[in-house]
Design goal:
Layout lengths: L1 E5 L6 H14 L4 E11 L2 E9 L4 E6 L7 E2 L2 E3 L1 H9 L9 E7 L7 H12 L3 E6 L5 H8 L3 E5 L5 H15 L4
Parallel strand pairs: 1-8, 1-9, 2-7, 7-8
Antiparallel strand pairs: 2-3, 3-4, 4-6, 5-6
Helix pairs in contact: 1-5
């Protein structure tokens, strides 16, 4: 089972994926992965923090980073992402990979792209968020026949968690 959740920025994708991770952990399912959070200073977004599900964290992107890898005004630090992803290589079939998100910042990393490609093409479990904008690699993931795509909106925000949990229980991570 491979689930991709897409939606506009700020709609609640990270919140949804955290709730799905908590649900899986309560069911005794092993999860690995990461999520990203905004870094705000005085109400202004300054960058993004990355936090693995086992507690490792670092700054993925920040306005103050002077790097050649940039998304808008943010310099991107792929080293921390690759440290986290490197621990998941090679992928395991007894784990659900929780990835927030497949987006421009993460795609600067060839290791990350290889990891996602191996998960999508292999017999692995994946729950991920993905950028809604047109990015060729993200479009490839979202259009892959192995992917079940869900779009999170204001109108389905409350129902989508239940819908995905029902799908997981019906189609099986627990078999």
């Amino acid at each position: 089972m491979k689930i991709v959740i897409t939606g506009k920025p700020g709609i609640g994708k990270t919140t949804l994926i955290k709730k799905l991770n908590e649900y899986l952990k309560k069911k005794g399912v092993k999860t690995k992965g990461f999520y990203t959070e905004e870094i705000r200073e005085f109400g202004e977004r300054m960058g993004f923090k990355i936090r693995s599900l086992d507690g490792k964290e670092g700054i993925l992107a920040h306005k103050s980073f002077n790097t050649t890898k940039r998304v808008g005004k943010y310099g991107v630090n792929i080293k921390i992402l690759e440290e986290i992803i490197g621990e998941y290589m090679p992928p395991s079939m007894d784990v659900v990979y929780i990835i927030d998100e497949i987006g421009k910042m993460e795609l600067f990393s060839p290791l990350f792209k290889d990891f996602i490609k191996s998960i999508v093409e292999g017999n692995y479990f994946l729950i991920t968020t993905a950028a809604i904008s047109k990015i060729p690699f993200v479009d490839w993931v979202k259009s892959n026949p192995r992917i079940q795509l869900f779009q999170l909106t204001k109108s389905n925000r409350e129902k989508l968690l239940t819908l995905i949990i029902n799908k997981i229980e019906k189609e099986g991570i627990f078999k």
